[in-house]
Amino acid sequence: MFEQYELPYAYDALEPHIDALTVETHYGKHHAAYTANFNAAVEKAGLTGKTAEEILSSLDRIKDPALVNALRNNGGGYYNHDLYFEILSPDPVKAPEGKLADAINATFGSTEALIEKLSALAASQFGSGWAWLYVDKDGKLAVTNSSNQDDPITMGLGKPILALDVWEHAYYLKYRNLRASYIKEFFEVLDWSAVGRKYEAIVG
Fold first, then answer.
1. What is the third-level CATH fold of 98-203?
2. Sequence-distant (≥ 6) Cβ neighbours of residue 120 within 8 angstroms
3. 4-21: pLDDT as tens digits
4. Which residues of 155-170 are buried (b: 16+ CB within 10 A; e: fewer)?
5. What CATH fold (topology level) applies to the domain 20-86?
6. Mind listing the pLDDT tens digit for each residue in 41-82?
């Protein structure tokens, strides 16, 4: 059975960048619902024992379109939000270090250039979705955005290490329609050490 990532910080710990009511609603309601619905879909599909990554990367093997949608939407909602909340911190490491820093500089030129690209992808995502930093199948860093609960795994691109949620439930209670303001504040609580650990777990 899949369980939500357990927050190591209080709902109000990310203030003033992300407010307590948003974290409580986002994590306690939306993420919790995705997790419960994913577990139900996994059981129905007979996929108990598989990892979320295994399930999301092999949806084409499932014949029932309704079940595919349930697994993609709720599995993506579970997996994406686990990553999102894991890389946020009230006491974040403010810049990439080590192997991740080297890879970012080699691929994007600088951390600032990467943040600019991610911010543009997040701001330009039409409707609900995400912006991603991921490791592609060749072990290289890349960025993209996605609609709804799709991610680099369901898109067949690679494994995500940074998830920037731009569904309205991630920011609307505090920022209303000012998505760009939320995106800027997201990077104030992004813990680059958590992103680095994700990167090194993939590339070694």
1. minor pseudopilin epsh fold (3.55.40)
2. none
3. 999 999 999 999 999 999
4. eebbbbbbbbbbbeeb
5. Helix Hairpins (1.10.287)
6. 999 999 999 999 999 999 999 999 999 999 999 999 999 999
